[in-house]
Predict the structure.
Amino acid sequence: MATAPRFDKAADNTRPYKSHRYDLFGPKIQRMLTLFSRAQVNTWLLLESDPLVVSYCERPLIIPDIKPKLVVDFWSGYAGRDELWLVGRDPNPASIDDTLPAFAQWARANKYEIRQLPPPDEVQGKVYLENWGLIVRDLSANGRYINPALLKSVRDVLQQQRSIGVLCSLLPEVDPVLVRVAAYSMLHSGVVSCANIATRELGPASLLELV
């Protein structure tokens, strides 16, 4: 398993002309990051939502000798591999070996897989991304209040499938906000799943179960 990130800060923080700026907190990497497009924000949500992603970094590399400047959108670190993500450049991208042969050769030599993603809302739909936006915001605001004892209590209650609303009612001694955030934390870590997270708005009726 990865023990340290291969990249821990952006190689380029230049804001592209006319782009929006999004300052965000990444619960998985426990730091602030700045992104410059909605596509990058949605891709970031894909990284946060995937429990197999150990770590990640925004804009880890500037690809050399390319005009106009081309920046790798994300490094994604898994237990057994590292990927470099290029996001939404083209719905039907040409092979990197054809368009950026020197970069492709460098990536192979350094054991990186290059992944060209379509726009993120084509990878996962709008509902999924909105639900994970909610989860990440709640974790960013309240995750520090979640302790191992609460996580154990939630896990015990989820020995059978429960809705978020029922889960909160079965732990009446705990603030329901913290119960909900503890459940979100377990979704984030892959301990718990929500079968309809991609198709229905997350709320009290959402069903959770242990993986």
Q: What stands out?
A: The mean pLDDT is 93.
